[in-house]
Amino acid sequence: MTQPPVNLDDARQQVRALEDAITRLRERHARADPRALAAYLNSLVQELWKLRDQIDTTLGLDSVVSDYAALWIRLKGGAVGEGRAPATAIGKVLESIQTGVKQAAAYVETNRAFLRGVPKEIAEEATLDMVAFAPGSARIALATASPQLRVDLPRPLAEVALELILRAVEWAEKTGNDETLQQMFPDPVIRRQVASRIREIAPGEARSYDVVEFSGAVLRDEQRIVVTAKANQHATEYLKRRTSEQGSYRGQLVAIDIERDVLNLRHAGRRIHCAFRRTLLDRAKKLVGEYVEVTGLALFHEDDEVPYRINVKSLRQLRTEEHREL
Asked: 170 with 251, same domain?
């Protein structure tokens, strides 16, 4: 809900009084349990946030960036508040969102997933800029870095991809149902990427914030997505259920020991052990050093987007243009 305008002088005096009160209480109870102290100070902090929102509205801060910002991100709770937030927390959230947007954009454009090597032109078109960092909790406004010059998309590619990521975050917060995510992203590789990004963004035990709130033009209809530790839990449970799944991976086939039939796929800066059927092994040996696509059952560690082993069912050499995309 939009906050009503206020008398700026009165509001600023109230903000200073609240800040002074919070500072004194923090100093007085410096040895208290941090969570207990946060709960004790919660009403004062909430009032401080409310006043700062009203000041922002009166100054027109939100309207100044509304023409540019696709998304507002707001972190709350934990170590966040009073217009401050740990730089590492903000950096990790922004990095995870940007990585997810580029991965989703590559999927939108090519209908397949890229782990690291998102094509340069797609990465550039899917880049986001920070256009405002506003006080009051920790609020960050993001906008597309590139203008909309295409006619085949209704909005900039970065916004299309960003909306996909946010819908996936909403999925994790609400249900975490496998079938729903599969409908959103038919490719199992991009589903794993999205679940990994959600785990990086959503609050959890290792996070310095308790809530992430998304709003802005990219969500349309003035919708707001509130993300809690529930989203992190659902994404984690999804990945635990998916330690093995079918998929296709591209890279250079390399030999560790041809005589012992040990072949790896050099993929996304990693080496994945490939187990070939006897019927495929002779052909695979002839393709050592070539760029190929292997398809089969991929085995994962829970926290990794790249499989550690692929039980290969099919193998094909990449065409020249496919090789260039890697």
From this structure: no
User: Is the pLDDT assigned to residue 22 strictly greater than 90?
Assistant: no
CATH number of the domain within which 291 lies: 2.40.50.140
Pair (291, 210) in one structural domain: no
> Would you say residue 203 has pLDDT above 90?
yes
**51 lies in the same domain as 122:** no
Which pLDDT belongs to residue 1?
45
Mean pLDDT on 52-60: 65
For 286, the domain range is 244-325
Shared domain for 236 and 248, answered yes or no, is no
Q: How many domains does the chain have?
A: 3
HEC profile for the chain?
Answer: CCCCCCCHHHHHHHHHHHHHHHHHHHHHCCCCCHHHHHHHHHHHHHHHHHHHHHHHHHHCHHHHHHCCCCEEEEEECCCCECCECCHHHHHHHHHHHHHHHHHHHHHHHHCCCCCCCCCHHHHHHCCEEEEEEEECCEEEEEEECCCCCCCCCCCCHHHHHHHHHHHHHHHHHHCCCHHHHHHHCCCHHHHHHHHHHHHHHCCCCCCCCCEEEEECHHHCCCCEEEECHHHHHHHHHHHHHCCEEEEEEEEEEEEEECCCCEEEEEECCEEEEEEECHHHHHHHHHCCCCEEEEEEEEECCCCCCCCCEEEEEEEEECCHHHHHHC
Q: Do 91 and 190 lie in a common domain?
A: yes
Lowest mean pLDDT among 118-122, 162-166, 296-300: 118-122
Alpha carbons 26 and 45: distance in angstroms, whole number: 12
Task: Please indicate, yes or no, if residue 192 is contained in any of the structural domains.
Answer: yes
